[in-house]
């Protein structure tokens, strides 16, 4: 496994740097040491030669947006980047990662496919080539410096957009429910390959505040459609938790496997 180093500015103590990280990212061990909550992204914390503190992080191939763009180019922008079962698997991995962060009291605040890292699983191919990748794992990233982050464009929930328009974007606006809304927009990227509301001007938020949402593919698994509509509900209290999302996606995934493994009557007739 390869690693990269993310170094912080010189002259800051570890405790002062900790104020830049989301509360809950570092936890004290019984021995009095600090441990990191997500070992799939950050391998360790260390001090480099010029006395700067740094994270030693696992190196991934790239982000999910990059892979989506490559796959869309392969398909000449015709059709989705992934088969439905692949899309559900990706969404489930992201939901798992977000559930873990929320359990630690960490808000992401900027969830989107470009903040999801991927590790390609390509047999006997070095370096890995995403055009030939059939399976890969996804890891939620870029939460480690989320203090001060205020989200991105139309990935932001309506309540955040209202705060932006009012010029009152306070950190208290960001909640677990805001992350859930962004998750739904991220799922839209995965299912379609498109950017949410790419036909709208960057600051035309009224459409979202009036209830407009991206158009999901049709036909699509009805339970998945229902789940995403709950996730991007205008009322934050109507949005499910990531635990609920994970459980729902696991159920949908199992049903897809059962359907794909069930032989059609025609196939049985031909084999006889």
Automatic annotation (TrEMBL):
Where's the Protein kinase domain?
1-252
InterPro entries, sorted:
Kinase-like_dom_sf, Prot_kinase_dom, Ser-Thr/Tyr_kinase_cat_dom, Ser/Thr_kinase_AS, Ser_Thr_protein_kinase
Q: Which GO terms describe its molecular function?
A: ATP binding; protein kinase activity
Protein name, UniProt field: Protein kinase domain-containing protein
């Amino acid at each position: 496994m390869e690693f990269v180093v993310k170094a912080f500015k010189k002259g800051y103590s570890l405790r002062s740097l900790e104020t830049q990280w989301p509360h809950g990212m570092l936890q004290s061990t019984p021995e009095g040491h600090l441990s990191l909550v997500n070992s799939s992204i950050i391998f360790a914390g260390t001090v480099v030669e010029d006395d700067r503190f740094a994270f030693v992080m696992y190196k991934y191939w790239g982000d999910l947006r990059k892979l989506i763009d490559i796959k869309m180019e392969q398909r000449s922008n015709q059709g989705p980047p992934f088969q439905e079962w692949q899309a559900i698997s990706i969404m489930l991995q992201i939901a798992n990662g977000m559930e873990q962060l929320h359990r630690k009291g960490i808000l992401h605040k900027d969830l989107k496919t470009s903040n999801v890292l991927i590790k390609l699983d390509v047999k006997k191919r070095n370096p890995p080539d995403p055009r030939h990748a059939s399976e890969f794992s996804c890891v939620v990233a870029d939460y480690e410096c989320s203090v001060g982050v205020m989200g991105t464009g139309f990935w932001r929930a309506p309540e955040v957009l209202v705060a932006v328009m009012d010029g009152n974007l306070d950190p208290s606006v960001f909640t677990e429910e805001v992350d859930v809304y962004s998750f739904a927009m991220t799922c839209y990227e995965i299912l379609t390959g498109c950017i949410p509301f790419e036909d709208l001007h960057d600051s035309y938020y009224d459409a979202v505040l009036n209830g407009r949402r991206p158009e999901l593919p049709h036909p699509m698994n009805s339970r998945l459609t229902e789940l995403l509509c709950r996730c991007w509900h205008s009322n934050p209290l109507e949005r499910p938790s990531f635990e609920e999302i994970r459980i729902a996606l696991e159920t949908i995934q199992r049903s897809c496997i059962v359907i794909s493994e069930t032989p059609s009557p025609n196939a049985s007739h031909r084999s006889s």
